Amino acid sequence: MNVLVINAGSSSLKYQLFDMETETVIAKGICERIGIDGRLKHTPVLNGKPVFKEDIPLPTHAEAINAVIEKLTSKEYGVISSLDEIGAIGHRVLHGGQKFSKSVLVAEDVIAAIVECIPLGPLHNPANLMGIKACQKAMPNVPQVAVFDTAFHQTMPKHAYIYPIPYSYYEKYGLRRYGFHGTSHRYVAQQALEFMGIPAEGSRLITCHLGNGSSLAAIKDGKCIDTTMGLSPLEGLPMGTRSGSIDPTIMSVMAEEEGLTMHQIMEILNKESGVLGVSGISSDFRDIEEAAAAGNERARLALDIFNYDCRKYIGAYMAAMGGADAIIFTAGLGENGPETREQIIEGLNQLGICLDKEKNNFKGQLREITGEGSKVRIIVIPTNEELVIARDTKEIVEK
Protein backbone atom coordinates (compact mmCIF):
# COMPACT_ATOMS: atom_id res chain seq x y z
CA MET A 1 0.00 0.00 0.00
CA ASN A 2 1.11 3.55 -0.78
CA VAL A 3 0.20 6.11 1.89
CA LEU A 4 0.26 9.87 1.26
CA VAL A 5 1.13 11.87 4.38
CA ILE A 6 -0.08 15.48 4.51
CA ASN A 7 0.99 18.22 6.93
CA ALA A 8 -1.02 21.33 6.08
CA GLY A 9 -0.12 24.74 7.51
CA SER A 10 -1.90 28.05 7.04
CA SER A 11 0.09 28.90 3.88
CA SER A 12 2.00 25.66 3.27
CA LEU A 13 1.43 21.96 2.63
CA LYS A 14 4.17 19.37 3.14
CA TYR A 15 3.76 15.84 1.80
CA GLN A 16 5.49 12.47 1.58
CA LEU A 17 4.37 9.39 -0.33
CA PHE A 18 5.36 6.13 1.37
CA ASP A 19 5.57 2.62 -0.03
CA MET A 20 4.44 0.84 3.12
CA GLU A 21 5.68 -2.56 1.98
CA THR A 22 9.21 -1.27 2.56
CA GLU A 23 8.36 1.86 4.60
CA THR A 24 10.36 3.98 2.18
CA VAL A 25 9.62 7.46 0.87
CA ILE A 26 9.11 7.44 -2.89
CA ALA A 27 8.34 11.15 -3.26
CA LYS A 28 8.17 14.24 -1.08
CA GLY A 29 7.65 17.94 -1.40
CA ILE A 30 6.20 21.19 -0.15
CA CYS A 31 3.72 23.74 -1.43
CA GLU A 32 4.56 27.19 -0.06
CA ARG A 33 2.99 30.64 -0.11
CA ILE A 34 -0.52 29.24 -0.59
CA GLY A 35 -2.94 32.13 -1.01
CA ILE A 36 -0.10 34.52 -1.90
CA ASP A 37 1.78 33.68 -5.11
CA GLY A 38 2.49 29.97 -4.73
CA ARG A 39 5.57 27.75 -5.03
CA LEU A 40 5.95 23.97 -5.33
CA LYS A 41 9.00 21.82 -4.77
CA HIS A 42 8.47 18.16 -5.67
CA THR A 43 11.21 15.56 -5.26
CA PRO A 44 10.93 12.02 -6.67
CA VAL A 45 13.14 9.97 -4.36
CA LEU A 46 13.74 6.56 -5.92
CA ASN A 47 13.29 6.61 -9.68
CA GLY A 48 15.89 9.19 -10.70
CA LYS A 49 13.39 11.64 -12.18
CA PRO A 50 14.14 15.37 -11.92
CA VAL A 51 13.13 17.68 -9.09
CA PHE A 52 10.37 20.17 -9.88
CA LYS A 53 10.81 23.57 -8.23
CA GLU A 54 8.84 26.49 -9.62
CA ASP A 55 6.43 29.27 -8.76
CA ILE A 56 2.87 28.21 -9.62
CA PRO A 57 -0.54 29.69 -8.74
CA LEU A 58 -1.82 28.21 -5.45
CA PRO A 59 -4.77 30.35 -4.38
CA THR A 60 -6.08 27.71 -1.92
CA HIS A 61 -5.17 24.33 -0.43
CA ALA A 62 -7.41 22.68 -3.02
CA GLU A 63 -5.13 23.89 -5.84
CA ALA A 64 -2.11 22.81 -3.79
CA ILE A 65 -3.45 19.25 -3.45
CA ASN A 66 -4.27 19.16 -7.18
CA ALA A 67 -0.71 20.33 -7.96
CA VAL A 68 0.71 17.57 -5.75
CA ILE A 69 -1.45 14.95 -7.47
CA GLU A 70 -0.42 16.20 -10.89
CA LYS A 71 3.27 15.92 -10.03
CA LEU A 72 2.93 12.51 -8.36
CA THR A 73 1.28 11.09 -11.49
CA SER A 74 3.05 13.06 -14.26
CA LYS A 75 5.27 11.31 -16.81
CA GLU A 76 8.19 13.68 -16.24
CA TYR A 77 8.17 13.95 -12.44
CA GLY A 78 5.80 11.24 -11.25
CA VAL A 79 6.29 8.11 -9.15
CA ILE A 80 2.86 6.49 -9.66
CA SER A 81 0.77 6.00 -12.77
CA SER A 82 -2.60 6.95 -11.26
CA LEU A 83 -4.38 7.91 -8.04
CA ASP A 84 -5.53 4.30 -7.73
CA GLU A 85 -2.05 3.59 -6.38
CA ILE A 86 -2.66 5.75 -3.30
CA GLY A 87 -4.34 3.48 -0.75
CA ALA A 88 -4.84 6.00 2.05
CA ILE A 89 -4.01 9.51 3.24
CA GLY A 90 -2.70 10.37 6.71
CA HIS A 91 -3.01 13.90 8.09
CA ARG A 92 -1.10 15.55 10.88
CA VAL A 93 -3.62 17.39 13.07
CA LEU A 94 -2.31 19.62 15.83
CA HIS A 95 -5.04 19.58 18.46
CA GLY A 96 -7.42 16.77 19.33
CA GLY A 97 -8.34 18.11 22.75
CA GLN A 98 -9.52 15.44 25.19
CA LYS A 99 -11.51 13.62 22.51
CA PHE A 100 -8.66 11.70 20.86
CA SER A 101 -6.03 9.55 22.56
CA LYS A 102 -5.14 7.76 19.32
CA SER A 103 -5.30 8.21 15.56
CA VAL A 104 -8.72 7.80 13.92
CA LEU A 105 -10.36 7.33 10.54
CA VAL A 106 -11.71 10.66 9.30
CA ALA A 107 -15.50 10.85 9.34
CA GLU A 108 -17.99 13.66 9.81
CA ASP A 109 -17.95 13.36 13.61
CA VAL A 110 -14.14 13.54 13.60
CA ILE A 111 -14.20 16.68 11.45
CA ALA A 112 -16.76 18.21 13.84
CA ALA A 113 -14.50 17.41 16.80
CA ILE A 114 -11.49 19.02 15.07
CA VAL A 115 -13.63 22.12 14.49
CA GLU A 116 -14.55 22.14 18.19
CA CYS A 117 -10.82 22.19 19.03
CA ILE A 118 -10.14 25.30 16.91
CA PRO A 119 -10.25 27.61 20.00
CA LEU A 120 -7.46 25.43 21.47
CA GLY A 121 -5.44 25.36 18.24
CA PRO A 122 -6.49 28.50 16.33
CA LEU A 123 -3.34 28.73 14.20
CA HIS A 124 -3.12 25.07 13.14
CA ASN A 125 -6.46 23.25 13.27
CA PRO A 126 -8.12 25.37 10.53
CA ALA A 127 -5.17 24.67 8.23
CA ASN A 128 -5.22 20.95 9.06
CA LEU A 129 -8.94 20.92 8.19
CA MET A 130 -8.26 22.65 4.88
CA GLY A 131 -5.83 19.85 4.01
CA ILE A 132 -8.38 17.17 4.90
CA LYS A 133 -11.19 18.82 2.95
CA ALA A 134 -8.97 19.45 -0.09
CA CYS A 135 -8.03 15.76 -0.15
CA GLN A 136 -11.66 14.72 0.26
CA LYS A 137 -12.57 16.81 -2.76
CA ALA A 138 -9.69 15.60 -4.92
CA MET A 139 -9.76 11.93 -3.82
CA PRO A 140 -13.24 11.28 -2.40
CA ASN A 141 -12.90 7.49 -2.37
CA VAL A 142 -9.53 7.32 -0.62
CA PRO A 143 -9.76 6.73 3.17
CA GLN A 144 -8.17 9.39 5.36
CA VAL A 145 -6.75 9.18 8.88
CA ALA A 146 -6.15 11.98 11.41
CA VAL A 147 -3.05 11.68 13.60
CA PHE A 148 -3.06 14.13 16.51
CA ASP A 149 -0.02 15.86 18.05
CA THR A 150 -1.80 15.83 21.40
CA ALA A 151 -2.86 12.15 21.46
CA PHE A 152 0.29 10.63 22.99
CA HIS A 153 0.10 12.97 25.97
CA GLN A 154 -3.45 11.96 26.93
CA THR A 155 -2.01 9.43 29.41
CA MET A 156 -0.84 12.22 31.72
CA PRO A 157 -2.30 11.98 35.24
CA LYS A 158 -4.71 14.69 36.28
CA HIS A 159 -2.23 16.31 38.68
CA ALA A 160 0.11 16.86 35.73
CA TYR A 161 -2.40 18.42 33.33
CA ILE A 162 -4.74 20.49 35.52
CA TYR A 163 -3.73 24.14 35.93
CA PRO A 164 -4.11 25.70 39.41
CA ILE A 165 -6.76 28.18 38.30
CA PRO A 166 -10.50 28.01 39.13
CA TYR A 167 -11.58 24.49 38.18
CA SER A 168 -14.61 25.82 36.33
CA TYR A 169 -12.34 27.00 33.48
CA TYR A 170 -11.31 23.39 32.90
CA GLU A 171 -14.91 22.20 33.06
CA LYS A 172 -16.29 24.90 30.76
CA TYR A 173 -13.47 25.44 28.26
CA GLY A 174 -11.10 22.49 28.61
CA LEU A 175 -8.25 24.73 29.80
CA ARG A 176 -5.56 22.21 30.77
CA ARG A 177 -2.14 20.97 29.68
CA TYR A 178 -2.33 19.02 26.41
CA GLY A 179 1.23 18.87 25.14
CA PHE A 180 2.45 18.69 21.53
CA HIS A 181 5.12 16.97 19.41
CA GLY A 182 3.42 13.81 20.64
CA THR A 183 4.05 11.89 17.42
CA SER A 184 7.77 12.60 17.69
CA HIS A 185 8.01 11.79 21.40
CA ARG A 186 6.14 8.54 20.81
CA TYR A 187 8.40 7.52 17.91
CA VAL A 188 11.75 8.18 19.58
CA ALA A 189 10.64 6.62 22.85
CA GLN A 190 9.77 3.38 21.04
CA GLN A 191 13.03 3.51 19.10
CA ALA A 192 14.95 4.03 22.34
CA LEU A 193 13.34 0.98 23.98
CA GLU A 194 14.21 -1.14 20.95
CA PHE A 195 17.76 0.23 20.84
CA MET A 196 18.33 -0.49 24.53
CA GLY A 197 16.57 -3.84 24.36
CA ILE A 198 14.32 -3.16 27.35
CA PRO A 199 10.53 -3.50 27.76
CA ALA A 200 8.26 -0.50 28.15
CA GLU A 201 7.11 -1.76 31.53
CA GLY A 202 9.39 -0.32 34.20
CA SER A 203 11.21 2.03 31.79
CA ARG A 204 11.80 5.74 32.44
CA LEU A 205 12.70 7.95 29.49
CA ILE A 206 13.12 11.69 29.01
CA THR A 207 12.67 12.66 25.37
CA CYS A 208 14.00 16.06 24.26
CA HIS A 209 12.47 17.30 20.98
CA LEU A 210 14.66 20.35 20.37
CA GLY A 211 14.33 22.66 17.39
CA ASN A 212 12.66 25.91 16.45
CA GLY A 213 9.81 24.48 18.49
CA SER A 214 11.00 22.50 21.51
CA SER A 215 9.45 20.28 24.16
CA LEU A 216 10.44 17.59 26.63
CA ALA A 217 8.38 14.63 27.80
CA ALA A 218 8.64 12.29 30.78
CA ILE A 219 7.71 8.78 29.63
CA LYS A 220 7.21 6.06 32.22
CA ASP A 221 6.24 2.48 31.35
CA GLY A 222 5.98 3.64 27.73
CA LYS A 223 3.36 6.29 28.55
CA CYS A 224 3.67 10.05 28.84
CA ILE A 225 3.25 11.30 32.41
CA ASP A 226 4.28 14.92 31.83
CA THR A 227 5.40 17.28 29.08
CA THR A 228 6.57 20.88 28.85
CA MET A 229 4.11 22.35 26.35
CA GLY A 230 0.67 23.12 27.71
CA LEU A 231 -2.69 24.35 26.47
CA SER A 232 -0.77 25.59 23.44
CA PRO A 233 2.78 25.14 22.10
CA LEU A 234 3.72 28.44 23.78
CA GLU A 235 4.38 26.99 27.24
CA GLY A 236 7.59 25.36 28.44
CA LEU A 237 11.04 25.92 26.99
CA PRO A 238 12.05 29.16 25.25
CA MET A 239 12.13 28.36 21.53
CA GLY A 240 13.05 29.98 18.25
CA THR A 241 10.45 32.74 18.52
CA ARG A 242 8.22 31.54 21.40
CA SER A 243 8.77 32.82 24.91
CA GLY A 244 8.06 29.57 26.73
CA SER A 245 6.83 29.81 30.33
CA ILE A 246 6.78 33.35 31.76
CA ASP A 247 5.09 35.17 34.64
CA PRO A 248 1.57 36.07 33.35
CA THR A 249 1.96 39.50 34.97
CA ILE A 250 4.37 40.36 32.14
CA MET A 251 1.37 40.49 29.81
CA SER A 252 -0.42 42.95 32.09
CA VAL A 253 2.64 45.22 32.14
CA MET A 254 2.98 45.02 28.35
CA ALA A 255 -0.67 45.97 27.96
CA GLU A 256 -0.56 48.88 30.41
CA GLU A 257 2.84 50.36 29.54
CA GLU A 258 2.81 49.75 25.76
CA GLY A 259 -0.93 50.01 25.13
CA LEU A 260 -0.98 46.60 23.45
CA THR A 261 -4.03 44.44 22.85
CA MET A 262 -4.06 40.79 23.92
CA HIS A 263 -3.76 39.79 20.26
CA GLN A 264 -0.65 41.96 19.86
CA ILE A 265 0.87 40.53 23.03
CA MET A 266 0.28 36.96 21.88
CA GLU A 267 1.89 37.81 18.54
CA ILE A 268 4.98 39.06 20.39
CA LEU A 269 5.15 36.02 22.67
CA ASN A 270 4.70 33.60 19.76
CA LYS A 271 6.68 35.29 16.99
CA GLU A 272 9.15 37.81 18.47
CA SER A 273 10.35 36.16 21.67
CA GLY A 274 12.42 33.11 22.62
CA VAL A 275 16.04 33.07 21.49
CA LEU A 276 15.20 35.61 18.78
CA GLY A 277 13.90 38.06 21.36
CA VAL A 278 16.86 37.65 23.70
CA SER A 279 19.61 37.57 21.08
CA GLY A 280 18.12 40.14 18.73
CA ILE A 281 19.83 38.20 15.94
CA SER A 282 17.87 35.20 14.72
CA SER A 283 15.52 32.37 15.61
CA ASP A 284 17.98 29.91 14.06
CA PHE A 285 20.24 28.35 16.68
CA ARG A 286 23.05 28.03 14.12
CA ASP A 287 23.14 31.80 13.63
CA ILE A 288 23.08 32.36 17.39
CA GLU A 289 25.86 29.86 18.07
CA GLU A 290 28.00 31.58 15.43
CA ALA A 291 27.37 34.99 16.99
CA ALA A 292 28.07 33.64 20.49
CA ALA A 293 31.36 32.16 19.32
CA ALA A 294 32.28 35.60 17.96
CA GLY A 295 31.70 37.15 21.39
CA ASN A 296 28.12 38.42 21.19
CA GLU A 297 26.94 38.47 24.81
CA ARG A 298 23.21 38.44 24.09
CA ALA A 299 23.60 35.49 21.75
CA ARG A 300 25.45 33.61 24.51
CA LEU A 301 22.73 34.61 26.98
CA ALA A 302 20.00 33.25 24.70
CA LEU A 303 21.77 29.89 24.48
CA ASP A 304 22.43 29.84 28.22
CA ILE A 305 18.74 30.44 28.97
CA PHE A 306 17.67 27.66 26.62
CA ASN A 307 20.19 25.12 27.92
CA TYR A 308 19.46 26.04 31.55
CA ASP A 309 15.73 25.49 31.09
CA CYS A 310 16.35 22.13 29.41
CA ARG A 311 18.43 21.04 32.40
CA LYS A 312 15.74 22.20 34.84
CA TYR A 313 13.06 20.14 33.13
CA ILE A 314 15.29 17.07 32.85
CA GLY A 315 15.97 17.31 36.59
CA ALA A 316 12.28 17.79 37.33
CA TYR A 317 11.30 14.77 35.25
CA MET A 318 13.92 12.62 36.93
CA ALA A 319 12.35 13.59 40.24
CA ALA A 320 8.85 12.87 38.92
CA MET A 321 9.83 9.38 37.72
CA GLY A 322 12.31 8.52 40.46
CA GLY A 323 15.22 8.54 38.02
CA ALA A 324 15.71 7.85 34.33
CA ASP A 325 17.08 5.06 32.16
CA ALA A 326 17.87 7.33 29.22
CA ILE A 327 17.78 10.89 27.93
CA ILE A 328 16.96 11.04 24.21
CA PHE A 329 17.78 13.99 21.96
CA THR A 330 15.83 14.43 18.72
CA ALA A 331 14.58 16.95 16.09
CA GLY A 332 16.62 19.55 14.23
CA LEU A 333 18.66 20.92 17.12
CA GLY A 334 18.66 17.75 19.19
CA GLU A 335 19.97 15.69 16.28
CA ASN A 336 22.39 18.24 14.82
CA GLY A 337 23.54 20.32 17.80
CA PRO A 338 26.51 18.68 19.52
CA GLU A 339 27.30 21.92 21.37
CA THR A 340 23.73 22.16 22.68
CA ARG A 341 23.73 18.52 23.81
CA GLU A 342 27.05 18.96 25.58
CA GLN A 343 26.04 22.15 27.39
CA ILE A 344 22.75 20.68 28.56
CA ILE A 345 24.36 17.51 29.90
CA GLU A 346 27.32 19.34 31.46
CA GLY A 347 24.95 20.88 33.98
CA LEU A 348 23.72 17.43 35.00
CA ASN A 349 27.12 16.07 36.02
CA GLN A 350 26.23 16.44 39.69
CA LEU A 351 23.47 13.87 39.09
CA GLY A 352 25.99 11.38 37.76
CA ILE A 353 25.07 12.02 34.12
CA CYS A 354 27.80 12.61 31.54
CA LEU A 355 28.34 12.23 27.82
CA ASP A 356 31.36 11.21 25.78
CA LYS A 357 32.53 14.37 23.98
CA GLU A 358 34.20 12.43 21.18
CA LYS A 359 31.09 10.32 20.51
CA ASN A 360 28.98 13.46 20.71
CA ASN A 361 30.86 15.16 17.87
CA PHE A 362 28.46 14.25 15.04
CA LYS A 363 25.15 15.24 13.47
CA GLY A 364 21.99 13.59 12.25
CA GLN A 365 22.22 9.88 13.02
CA LEU A 366 21.24 7.37 15.69
CA ARG A 367 24.09 7.10 18.17
CA GLU A 368 24.63 6.54 21.86
CA ILE A 369 26.82 9.24 23.40
CA THR A 370 26.84 8.08 27.02
CA GLY A 371 30.03 8.90 28.92
CA GLU A 372 31.95 6.39 30.98
CA GLY A 373 30.37 5.88 34.41
CA SER A 374 27.16 7.77 33.55
CA LYS A 375 24.16 6.62 35.57
CA VAL A 376 21.81 7.49 32.71
CA ARG A 377 22.23 6.55 29.05
CA ILE A 378 22.23 9.38 26.48
CA ILE A 379 21.05 8.60 22.96
CA VAL A 380 20.51 10.68 19.83
CA ILE A 381 17.62 9.36 17.71
CA PRO A 382 16.45 11.07 14.49
CA THR A 383 12.70 11.54 14.61
CA ASN A 384 10.34 10.46 11.85
CA GLU A 385 6.86 11.81 12.49
CA GLU A 386 5.78 11.19 8.90
CA LEU A 387 6.55 7.47 9.20
CA VAL A 388 4.44 7.27 12.38
CA ILE A 389 1.55 8.92 10.55
CA ALA A 390 1.95 6.52 7.61
CA ARG A 391 2.08 3.49 9.93
CA ASP A 392 -1.01 4.58 11.86
CA THR A 393 -2.84 5.24 8.60
CA LYS A 394 -2.03 1.82 7.15
CA GLU A 395 -2.99 0.04 10.37
CA ILE A 396 -6.34 1.81 10.71
CA VAL A 397 -7.31 1.46 7.06
CA GLU A 398 -6.47 -2.24 7.00
CA LYS A 399 -8.55 -3.09 10.09
Search tags:
single chain; 38% helix; alpha/beta; 399 residues
Describe this structure in words.
Helix content is 38%, strand content 19%. By secondary structure, it is of the alpha/beta class. The strands form 2 sheets. It has an 8-stranded mixed β-sheet with strand order 5-4-3-2-1-6-8-7, sandwiched between helices. A 6-stranded mixed β-sheet has the order 11-10-9-12-14-13, with helices on both faces. The protein is globular, with a radius of gyration of 21 Å. The mean pLDDT is 95.
Biggest sheet strand order reads 5-4-3-2-1-6-8-7
**Average predicted local confidence, pLDDT:** 95
Low-confidence stretches: none
What assembly state would you assign to the polypeptide chains in this entry? single chain
| Envelope shape | globular
Query: H/E series, N to C?
Result: EEEEEHEEHHEHHHEEEHHHHHEHHEEH
Proportion of residues in helical segments = 25-40%
Strand content: 15-25%
Structural class: alpha/beta
Q: Rg from C-alpha positions?
A: 21 Å
State the major sheet: 8 strands, mixed
Through-space gap between termini: 14 Å
Number of helices: 14
For the secondary structure, the number of strands is 14
